[in-house]
Design a protein that fits this description.
The chain contains five helices and 31 strands. Strands 15, 20, 21, 22, 25, 26, 28 and 29 form an eight-stranded antiparallel beta sheet that branches. Strands 10, 16, 17, 23, 27 and 31 form a six-stranded antiparallel beta sheet that branches. Strands 3-9-8-6 form a four-stranded mixed beta sheet, with no helix packed on it. A hairpin with a 7-residue loop joins β16 and β17. The longest helix has 7 residues.
Length: about 375
């Protein structure tokens, strides 16, 4: 009699799970310890960005990575690199060497947050085809501050055309292009997993597809770092609700009409122990870390571009030193269905957004001029 043991198949994954730098001598170049680590790298991310006090003064750094089991990375994990002269491209190879994934790693000075957005900068995902929006910094570099739930919709309908996703581009904006948010039917996949609709959404932050099948409220990582206190947000919208409102089970609710949602939240991005804080769909309007929030009370249906405006109501005074040290985040959210996060809404509800502007509180130097 003979027996044989087959070798266990080698891992095909090639992802960066986390990235960090360490050392007291390195810490002085960052605003806070949490800036030295990117703890949870989303599966669809290809760019990692660290924010430092001064890029010109940054020494060569040994960047460390946690990779999927068996994967290897080039340049070598922990090798010193010069990030002052631009980003460094890392290539991760799977354990079986059959799969590769590239990541662009940037170290940069804290960018001054933009105050106006015309949504003219967009592209489509190189493999999955859905639309993505980004901003250009003063130096011409790309800043991926906008996120959508399109990555999650891809799981439900991987063969959808770019124009059939919940969040798409439309050429007929208030001025130039605009963002078009549509509540979509997720088909047989959605019915099977209890997620019958997908509202169109756009928000400042990141989408983490890791939770797309388990806890969808955690997929939305709301907010980007701010060094100024927001006062108000304004812009232009058009909206038309879908004809049939359904509950989370896909059953019609005869006496309900869908509504869109536009709101913003300003919150502290670390807790009392210095641990990073990120708000998600489940706590973005209720967290104890919220300093102020703004919400458009009513967005009546209209086929004509109509101005909206919302003002921040403060719950807690802003700490000016904390603000200077990048201790706050701003979340700004648009959705075609107000209760779309709990899979309630009307398929076909459509919200158009364009020419959004954030007004910040005047700084001391501005007030003295």
């Amino acid at each position: 009699m003979w027996s044989c043991i087959k070798d266990e198949p080698q891992n095909m994954e090639c992802d960066i799970l986390s990235a960090w730098v360490e050392g007291e001598d390195v810490a002085q170049h960052f605003f806070k310890p949490s800036d030295m680590t990117i703890s949870h790298v989303a599966a669809n991310t290809h760019e990692l960005t660290f924010t430092v006090r001064s890029l010109a003064d940054l020494p060569d750094l040994a960047l460390l990575f946690t990779l999927t089991p068996g994967a290897t990375i080039t340049p070598e994990n922990g090798s010193k690199q010069n990030f002052r002269e631009g980003p460094v491209v890392y290539t991760v190879a799977s354990e079986d060497q059959q799969w590769h994934k590239t990541y662009t790693v940037n170290f940069r000075d804290v960018p001054r947050p933009k105050s106006s957005f015309d949504f003219e900068h967009f592209d489509t995902h190189e493999k999955k085809g859905y639309y993505r929006w980004f901003e250009l910094q003063a130096d011409g570099t790309r800043s991926d501050i906008w996120a959508t739930g399109n990555e999650g919709f891809y799981i439900a309908k991987p063969n959808a055309a770019p124009s059939d996703y919940p969040t798409t581009m439309d050429p007929e904006g208030y001025d130039g292009h605009c963002v078009k948010l549509v509540t979509r039917d997720t088909g047989t996949w959605g019915k099977r997993f209890g997620k019958p609709i997908a509202a169109g959404n756009l928000f400042l932050g990141q989408f983490n597809s890791k939770y797309a099948l388990t806890n969808t409220l955690l997929t939305t990582e709301m907010g980007i770092t701010m060094d100024r206190e927001p006062v108000s947000v304004a812009g232009y919208y058009k909206y038309r609700p879908g004809t049939i409102f359904t509950d989370k089970n896909g059953k019609e609710v005869a006496d309900r009409t869908d509504e869109p949602s536009i709101y913003a939240v300003f919150y502290t991005n670390t807790d009392a122990d210095g641990t990073p804080v990120m708000l998600h769909g489940d706590d973005v309007l209720t967290s104890s870390h919220i300093v102020s929030k703004a919400q458009v009370a009513s967005l009546p249906p209209t086929d004509v571009w109509t101005r909206f405006e919302m003002t921040f109501a403060s719950a807690t005074p802003v700490d000016l030193q904390r603000l200077k040290e990048q201790g706050y985040n701003l979340a700004l959210v648009f959705s075609s269905s107000k209760t779309g996060d709990t899979f309630e809404g009307a398929v076909g509800s459509t919200l158009y957004i364009d020419k959004v502007e954030i007004v910040f509180k005047a700084e001391e130097s501005d007030a003295q001029q």
